Amino acid sequence: LIEGPAAGALRAGREAEADRLLDEALATPEAAPRGFVSIVGAGPGDPELLTLRALAALQRADVILADRLVGPEILSRARREAEVIDVGKGPHGEGASQAAINRLLVHHARRGRHVVRLKGGDPFVFGRGGEEAEWLARHGIRFEVVPGITAALACAAYAGIPLTHREHAHSLHLVSAQGAGEDVDWRALARRGRTLAVYMGVAAAAAVQERLLAGGLPPATPVAIVENGTRPGQRVVVTELAALAGTVAALGIRSPATLIVGRVAALATRLAWFGEPPVEARLRQSA
Ligand code: SAH
Asked: How far is residue 248's CA from residue 245's CA, in Å, rounded to a whole number?
């Protein structure tokens, strides 16, 4: 997908050399940036949650670099002539590397194309949009960032869970549990009166449970698991903190799912309006 000398180096697996060659090529006057990159949030899945600005970018695109979380219902709204490149990253890091994506962005923009970097949810919420914007800025390529509806907001709305509520929660925290949440201060988050929206929490459910309990959050704290939020297969499970990992395992919850921890999560049983009604399950692990 990359042409010129950098392509040869890349094919031979010499990534550092490819980056250097590309940087060199970019430094020449004829490489003056004409292209444009739209870093676009596609929202959580329901195409009706695309912003008008995201839609406009899709309809102008020459090239679309799309993440795995972006479904065909959204891509089908793109300009027909646009070349779609799937750079999807799976939960185990399969798919194009971030370095390869950065290279593609520069490569296509440098050819004067309108590139859309399409991401699930919002690009600046656990979406690596920041790294890509930094890379583009460093290479003098013009870009815009189009916000998208992030999973926490979308899942909460479509599950009937107000993220803040005068009686239950006065702050909302967006947390990544990637890598079992090693970099997160769970103890500091384990306070009453907060809502935690935990991204990438399926594989880390046991660690999230253990750390929040260790931090002092009551075992009976409600937790909602929203799987495939806003999509036709949306599933909402309401459980409690002490039963989180057991419930995730027993019900076979799969990514993408967002965990909503806090008293507001219990409101799903009364306020759910989309898809199947929520399931209540408190399956504690016996081991
Ligand atoms: N930039 C994205 C987040 C990417 S990280 C955003 O702003 O939403 C990937 C995580 O997002 C998943 O592990 C899951 O926790 C969450 N997620 C994304 N789409 C989702 C969906 N439709 N339903 C539930 N969770 C979702």
From this structure: 5
Q: Are 161 and 224 in contact (CB under 8 A)?
A: yes
**Residues that are catalytic:** 67, 89
Helix axis angle for 15-27 and 98-110, nearest 10°, is 20
Measured from the Cα of 201, ligand 1's closest atom is 15
Structure tokens at 27: 């430094």
Query: What is the identity of the amino acid at 266?
Result: A
**42, 145 Cβ separation under 8 angstroms:** no
Contact 115 CB / ligand 1 (< 6 Å): no
The response to whether residue 222 sits with its C-beta less than 6 Å from ligand 1 reads: no
CB contact burial 148-165 (16+ within 10 A = b; e otherwise): bbbbbbbbbbbbbbebee
Q: Which of 263, 217, 256 is nearest to 238 (CA)?
A: 263
- Tokens (6 digits) for 198: 């935990």
Take atom 6 of ligand 1 and give the residue whose Cα is closest: 121
Could you tell me which of 121, 149, 152, 119 has the C-alpha nearest to residue 258?
Answer: 152
Q: In tens digits, what is the pLDDT along the chain, a chain of 287 residues?
A: 677 778 888 888 888 888 888 777 766 655 555 799 999 999 999 999 999 999 999 999 999 999 988 989 999 999 999 999 999 865 555 678 899 999 999 999 999 999 999 999 999 999 999 999 999 999 999 999 999 999 999 999 999 999 999 999 999 999 999 998 899 999 999 999 999 999 999 999 999 999 999 999 999 999 999 999 999 999 999 999 999 999 999 999 999 999 999 999 999 999 999 999 999 998 887 64
Nearest to 224 by CA among 207, 203, 201, 204: 201
Rounded to the nearest whole angstrom, what is the distance from the C-alpha of residue 97 to the centroid of ligand 1?
Answer: 19
- DSSP for residue 150: -
Q: Is the CB of 200 under 6 A from ligand 1?
A: yes
CB-CB contact of 238 with 279 (8 Å): yes
